[in-house]
Amino acid sequence: MKSVTIRELHMNTGKVVRASAQQNILVTERGQPVAVLKSAKAADLVGKPFPKRDIRKMPKVPGDSTAYISEERDAR
Fold first, then answer.
1. Which one, out of 6, 19, 34, 75, has a CA that is 20 to 30 A from the CA of 60?
2. What pLDDT was estimated at residue 32?
3. pTM, rounded to two decimals
4. pLDDT computed for residue 50 by the predictor
5. How far is the C-alpha of 25 from the C-alpha of 18, rounded, in Å?
């Protein structure tokens, strides 16, 4: 398994991600493993990984959402 540091991943993200399609890549930070990049096979993506939300099925909220945002912003 190939290994890269977080710094190398940051500097060469595209290259490292494309390489992960061929083999698993271990991401390390200060010599300690923190993540593994691996290819996404069709079997890994069963169902809808990012389902589209139907706004009609979402719960109704009384009032205008901009009012809630304004109140929160003004409270800071």
1. 75
2. 96
3. 0.56
4. 63
5. 11
User: Could you state, in order of their start, the residue ranges of all structural domains in the chain?
Assistant: 1-40
* 1-40 CATH: 3.40.1620
Task: Answer whether residue 4 shows pLDDT above 80.
Answer: yes
Q: Kindly list the strands in the beta sheet with 2-5, ordered across the sheet, starting from the edge strand earlier in the chain.
A: 2-5, 25-29, 32-37
Report yes or no: 6 and 29 within 8 Å, Cβ to Cβ. Answer: yes
Can you list the pairs that 32-36 forms with residues at least 24 positions away whose Cβ atoms lie under 8 Å?
34/6, 36/1
Contact 27, 33 (CB under 8 A): yes
Give the whole-angstrom CA distance, residue 30 versus residue 21. 25
Helix spans in 20-75 (H): 65-75
The single residue listed with the structure tokens 């009384």 is 62
